[in-house]
Design brief:
Low-confidence stretches: none
Mean pLDDT: 91
Helix content: 25-40%
Strand order of the largest sheet: 1-7-6-5-4-8-9-10
Distance between the termini: 40 Å
Shape: globular
Strand content: 35-45%
Structural class: alpha+beta
Oligomer: single chain
Order of helices and strands: EHEEEHEEEHHEEEHEHEEH
Length: 253
Amino acid sequence: MSESNHPEYELVLMVRSLDPAGVLEKISELTSLGDYRLIRKETEKLRDVYFDTRDHSLSRRRLNLRLRYLTGVVRITLKQSPGFFTRNRNERRETELDWSFVSLSEILHEISRRGIRLETKDPGEGDPADALKKLGLVVIQDRETKRSRREVVSPQGELLAELAMDSVTYHFEGENIMIDEVEVEAKSKNGRKVVEEVAKNLTHVFGLKVQRWRSGKLSTGMKIEKLLRNGRLNGLIEEGRLKQEAYELLLGN
């Protein structure tokens, strides 16, 4: 069983350009940033589906429950997000397990430990998403990501962080919307400083085409969905992507 239980530390840079795909391509062509080498890794295609109770008990306690579908693999993840005004805003506690009913029981124990009661304790059989729905959980976000990865390595060859160029497609009711962003995630105890340095170097090289972003994909998607429902994105979507003006609305929500 593949398992991780650790604090996740990452920064997000939103790509704000008339040619976001071109910006991601230029970043992907980099072989170094500052003192660090960038080692090309395989491209991934991810599907992430998030769940909550009908009364949003998980989100009220800053918990995110996710199923991640990779090629031939499904993982279940529980993340604890920090409060917005906490010191370590970019750090999240994460438990991620390969899908099984044993793994589901472990995640449900963690949820129960926080005082959250589900409609039933029996997930039944079948598909992972169906199992969660049988517990009374509902889908709050469904998205797909094409991810191009680079390892951020010290001159001595130590893996310090990961750089990910992500093209994200959110599946909303009746509409799909794409955004492009860059994530820098620490991969060692020395990685936090490196994450900051890599983000700073990218903003220096690409200027206003990349912008430090305070929200993760889940929160950004929820903001987009809210604006979409309220009609505030009318005229601000072109060929499935958000126009530049839409990001100002996201910053204000």
